[in-house]
């Protein structure tokens, strides 16, 4: 069986500043480092920290524990409006050049 994937747009992109609205990291903000499209998840800097166990290697014979960012579901993230600094919903509308661009539903400014 071939796995079918739906392609749809997300309300966040790499480089956006986002706020976590639910889960263990609720209330934290950070910059999106990576968006995992096929899993509907994102990796946010400093949010959802997990402990990763590293095996011993020639360079690191002891092995180690490393704190890294885990992914978080996109539905738990909201874009932070650069004008107000608050979390906001986003929409898309045509800019003056006729191209679709995201805007803040709270302030009405383009993001």
Automatic annotation (TrEMBL):
Residues 11-38 form the KOW domain. InterPro entries: KOW, Rib_uL2_dom2, Ribosomal_uL24, Ribosomal_uL24_C, Ribosomal_uL24_CS, Ribosomal_uL24_KOW, Translation_prot_SH3-like_sf. Residues 85-111 are annotated as: Disordered. GO terms for cellular component: ribosome. Keywords: Ribonucleoprotein, Ribosomal protein, RNA-binding, rRNA-binding. Signal peptide: none annotated. Belongs to the universal ribosomal protein uL24 family. NCBIfam families: rplX_bact. Part of the 50S ribosomal subunit. One of two assembly initiator proteins, it binds directly to the 5'-end of the 23S rRNA, where it nucleates assembly of the 50S subunit. One of the proteins that surrounds the polypeptide exit tunnel on the outside of the subunit. This is Large ribosomal subunit protein uL24. It comes from Nibrella saemangeumensis.
